[in-house]
Write a structure and sequence with these properties.
Number of strands: 11
CATH class of the largest domain: Mainly Beta
Structural class: alpha+beta
Order of helices and strands: EHEEHHEEEEHEEHEE
Largest sheet: 8 strands, antiparallel
CATH topology of the largest domain: Pnp Oxidase, Chain A
Helix content: 10-25%
CATH architecture of the largest domain: Roll
Number of domains: 2
CATH superfamily of the largest domain: Electron Transport, Fmn-binding Protein, Chain A
Strand content: 25-35%
Mean pLDDT: 90
Length: 209
């Protein structure tokens, strides 16, 4: 979430868009994929990465924050991608609830998601819905970190938030899980892209949190 000393890479294994620029922000999603031993200090005479520049100059302003919170409140399902041991992204659909910009979701303690996150807490997620008109498309995508909730009080709060997303339920076939039965994750966004076609075709506002 901060500026770092400029670095670049000439390692040909990385895509050209990573090699043709220098990076200077530690939340840059492209820069993060450049392994430390593939980095060289300085700009290398290259232009600044556009994503680094965007991260530097665009903190969350109040208007964008309200837009993000509105979209979070309007939805209760997200697609979240974790990293498998072989590096292959695994995208799954989960329910979520939010407390401000902090998101919560749960999964089974023996699930692949839980195993992935125990090894690497980086996630990417999207929140959106279908619309009949193209120019009505809105949504969120985030780069974030997901940590297991270990405090029982926070776990109980997260479960209450998750259930409050739904109208009163009739009889359920199984009892509600307790925090001890599941893994509850707290998701803290680092970079948020706010998609809003009403501002222009494919318009996004990219902000840091």
């Amino acid at each position: 979430m901060a500026k770092v000393l400029a670095y670049h890479t000439d390692f040909e294994e990385h895509p050209a868009e990573y090699r043709d620029v220098y990076h200077d922000h530690d939340d840059c999603p492209d820069g993060r994929l450049i392994l430390p031993h593939h980095r060289s200090s300085g700009t290398g005479g290259k232009p600044q990465c556009k994503k680094c520049a965007e991260l530097t100059r665009r903190p969350v302003d109040e208007g964008i924050r309200r837009k993000i919170l509105t979209l979070l409140e309007q939805h209760r399902i997200m697609t979240i991608a974790t990293l498998r041991p072989d590096g292959w992204p695994q995208a799954t659909t989960v329910g979520y609830a939010n407390d401000g910009l902090t998101l919560y979701f749960l999964c089974g303690p023996d699930s692949q998601k839980a195993a992935n996150l125990a090894r690497d807490d980086r996630v990417s997620l999207t929140i959106d819905h279908d619309t009949p008109q193209v120019m009505e498309i809105t949504g969120l995508s985030m780069a974030a970190r997901a940590k297991v909730v270990v405090d029982p009080t926070e776990g109980a709060k997260a479960l209450q938030l998750l259930m409050s997303k739904y109208p009163p339920q009739g009889s359920l076939p199984l009892p509600m899980p307790t925090p001890a039965d599941i893994r509850i994750f707290r998701v803290k966004p680092i970079v948020v892209s706010v998609l809003d076609y009403s501002k222009g075709f494919g318009h996004t506002d990219v902000v840091t949190c």
